[in-house]
Amino acid sequence: QKEVEQNSGPLSVPEGAIASLNCTYSDRGSQSFFWYRQYSGKSPELIMFIYSNGDKEDGRFTAQLNKASQYVSLLIRDSQPSDSATYLCAVTPSRAGGTSYGKLTFGQGTILTVHP
Amino acid sequence: ETGVTQTPRHLVMGMTNKKSLKCEQHLGHNAMYWYKQSAKKPLELMFVYSLEERVENNSVPSRFSPECPNSSHLFLHLHTLQPEDSALYLCASSPFEWNQPQHFGDGTRLSIL
């Protein structure tokens, strides 16, 4: 079983719709969850992150955590063609707690296409 | 300049060449990372430096040699690379805490002839 798993897609949604991206993780003790957006040929860009204590909303983006089922989701409301990119989920494993640096495990990413 | 800067953006080299990738961060972070990103594969962590000390080396071949002279600069020295080493090499940095996000540079697209 992969540590962090994402459906590679592509996920295609019409402009204005809600895009829902999911990520499952295997380490039950994970406490930090990150979503990055990566345009083709570019580097990953942090969109938002949440900890195990709650969900977060930032503009059109909402990150939600389901600890019991061990998945984290990213909702993009009012999707725009400019949202078309690969979305990477990253998780901090429980064994990283207490270290002085981050240790992220990335999923393979989900390709999102928003069509006009 | 702000953020994380990587040079060069593109590099083409033969298998017998020696070259270096450079990364500089202007965020005041204390940890720096090298990742490899190949097509259709998740980001692979190669090396981690925390306060200029190497704290992780994820079974990376010795033809890749990292160097961190200070908390703002990170190098990846390359020699005798193989065609399968062609990939996007990303540098990232983060604060001195384990649960903070990492911020990436634009990467170096490396092609081995």
Describe this structure in words.
The complex is a heterodimer of chains A (116) and B (113). Chain A has strands at residues 4-6, 11-14, 19-25, 32-38, 45-51, 56-58, 61-66, 71-76, 85-92, 105-106, 110-115. With 116 residues, chain A is an all-beta fold. In chain A, strands 2, 4, 5, 9, 10 and 11 form a six-stranded mixed sheet that branches. Chain A has a five-stranded antiparallel sheet with strand order 1-3-8-7-6, with no helix packed on it. By secondary structure, chain B is mainly beta. Helices cover 0% and strands 57% of the residues of chain B. Chain B is built from no helices and eleven strands. In chain B, the strands form two sheets. In chain B, strands 2, 4, 5, 6, 9, 10 and 11 form a seven-stranded mixed sheet that branches. Chain B has a four-stranded antiparallel sheet with strand order 1-3-8-7, with no helix packed on it. In chain B, a hairpin with a 2-residue loop joins strand 5 and strand 6 (53-57). The model of chain B has no long low-confidence stretch (mean pLDDT 92).
How much of the polypeptide of chain A forms β-strand, as a percent range?
A: over 45%
Percentage of helical residues of chain B? under 10%
- What's the count of strands of chain B? 11
Strand content of chain B: over 45%
Overall structural class of chain A, as computed from helix and strand content, comes to mainly beta
**Biggest interface, CB < 8 A:** A-B, 29 and 28 residues
Mean pLDDT of chain A comes to 91
Order of helices and strands of chain A: EEEEEEEEEEE
Rg of chain B (C-alpha, Å): 13 Å
Which segments of chain B are poorly predicted (pLDDT under 50) over 5 or more consecutive residues?
none
**What does the average pLDDT of chain B come to?**
92
Topology:
The complex is a heterodimer of chains A (116) and B (113).
Chain A: E1 4-6, E2 11-14, E3 19-25, E4 32-38, E5 45-51, E6 56-58, E7 61-66, E8 71-76, E9 85-92, E10 105-106, E11 110-115
Parallel strand pairs in A: 2-11
Antiparallel strand pairs in A: 1-3, 3-8, 4-5, 4-9, 6-7, 7-8, 9-10, 9-11
Chain B: E1 4-7, E2 10-13, E3 18-25, E4 31-37, E5 44-50, E6 53-57, E7 64-70, E8 73-79, E9 87-94, E10 103-104, E11 108-112
Parallel strand pairs in B: 2-11
Antiparallel strand pairs in B: 1-3, 3-8, 4-5, 4-9, 5-6, 7-8, 9-10, 9-11
